[in-house]
Amino acid sequence: MPIITRTADSVESEDWRQVLSESFRRPADLLNWLGLPAAGLPGGSDDQPDFPMLVPRPYARRMEARPDDPLLLQVLPLTEEKREQPGFITDPLAEDSANTTPGIIHKYHGRVLLLAASGCAVNCRYCFRRHFPYADNRLSRAQWQQALDYVRRDNSISEIILSGGDPLMLQDADLQQLIDHCQAIPHVRRLRIHTRLPVVIPQRLTPALTAMLAATRLQVSMVLHINHPRELSDDHRRPLKSLAAAGITLLNQSVLLAQINNNISVLSELSERLFEFGILPYYLHLLDRVKGAHHFDVPESEAIALHQELQTLLPGYLVPKLAREVAGLPNKAMIHLDRD
Ligand SMILES: *Cc1c(COP(=O)(O)O)cnc(C)c1O
Ligand code: SF4
Asked: Which CATH architecture has domain 95-334?
């Protein structure tokens, strides 16, 4: 392991927006801070105007100073992303067609995605939303009302899933207002928040946020997006414990990623560590075939073999469902071994 010296960080702010504003935005700065020579990386590139690098410092701090670090590889733009690969397209989930009301994606029975915020606190290179027309989904107040009207009119909708972008990018006051609107709709029973923000900035899980989520009549779950055991740190323990104590169900969804977590010991350690932090593994997703992310793809046969092995190692409740998003299906497709 190389010996690294990092410049001392100033004491980290408790204000998550401040922490976010201090994120690394240039690959050279991040590599330099890690003590890695840019030349040692296969195409560590500055030039990604459409989907620029964004890496908060608490996340960078959990990286190890090596070019194949699984946290670094999730966020560092590589020139490899620019290579065209057949089958990897800009809208692999055909969400454009399920996105008829701005801010709403209604593909599955009983639940809708509400695109609550357009940005994220980290730009993950494998993200299927890297080409999503966020700008068109930055909602005006009138459009917010339209999106909520959509939910009001359809009483089959019992769950609102705040997604994005990352819904925790909203300021607390805006989030509170949104929750108030949601809980005022009688047929809505559950609120789910899909977020990666607290993974990269644990300071986002403030006592005020926990109190807000504890106070709604809705049953709240939070689905964290954690791909590697080292993404959870001691800074996560206390706030996650508070959320759990407040009755918030904590779940995790991971994406199976080449070079990051397509490895049985990483996957089993991830499940163990999630549980240690009070989080249950929910989904292990196959990569959506989005343009620019082909180098993260894990073949389905390998995914099935890993999943099978995971089942032999862990109790059932620590084995996530292996799933893939298939355009046009009424739910995510569960991936199984064909036994016949
Ligand atoms: C994943 C997803 C959901 C939620 O599906 P669950 O199986 O309930 O987790 C809802 N809508 C869309 C568009 C999704 O991609
Ligand atoms: S946080 Fe989620 S939505 Fe945002 S870039 Fe990462 S994977 Fe995509």
From this structure: Alpha-Beta Barrel (3.20)
